[in-house]
Design brief:
3 helices, alpha+beta, four-stranded antiparallel β-sheet, 7 strands
Length: about 170
């Protein structure tokens, strides 16, 4: 694949993943018995959804043949805790805990609109708005819950993408 073709393929998958995830976010939010926000991604990190979504997206990109990995940053372990560093996403109000996907030389983020960025943000891996904390600061039980959540929706994703894969193969035949 040429770089422009690869970028287009990553973008297409990110768009499909965002479309797939929006109703899932509402399901997750409803399960937490919270009020639905006006923009679904406004609460994606507040309830660990950016972590779950990014883990899901990295799995989807990997399944499509891309080298993708989950990344995150946490600037502090508690609201009043000491600063750990410039980690997470740099918003207008400072560094925010966040998770995203690193795919080759790109950052792919389908929840950045909670910080005022576009709903699907694909940018250079060295974008200064992102600070990779190089380790997952979540407790082991939350890491397992994130993995279980992605495992639970994965069969639905396969059903969601099957028509797209079928249509793509029909076009190339």
């Amino acid at each position: 694949m040429t770089p422009s073709t690869e970028l287009a393929a990553v973008r297409d998958l990110a768009v499909a993943a965002r479309q797939f995830m929006e109703p899932i976010w509402l399901e997750w939010h409803s399960a937490w018995k919270g009020d639905a926000p006006t923009t679904p991604s406004q609460w994606t990190c507040g309830q660990w959804t950016c972590g779950r979504t990014s883990l899901f997206l990295s799995r989807a990109l990997t399944a499509d043949g891309f080298e993708a990995s989950w990344a995150s940053g946490t600037p502090r372990l508690s609201p009043s805790g000491a600063a750990l560093g410039d980690f997470g996403f740099l918003s207008d109000t400072g560094w925010q805990s966040h998770a995203w996907v690193e795919c080759g030389d790109l950052i792919v983020d389908i929840t950045a609109d909670q910080f005022g960025a576009p709903p699907i943000l694909i940018t250079d891996r060295h974008d200064r708005r992102y600070g990779n904390g190089a380790r997952d600061t979540a407790l082991p039980e939350f890491i397992r819950a994130r993995e279980r959540a992605v495992d639970e929706i994965w069969p639905r994703w396969l059903g969601f993408t099957a028509p797209r894969v079928y249509l793509d193969t029909q076009r190339t035949s």
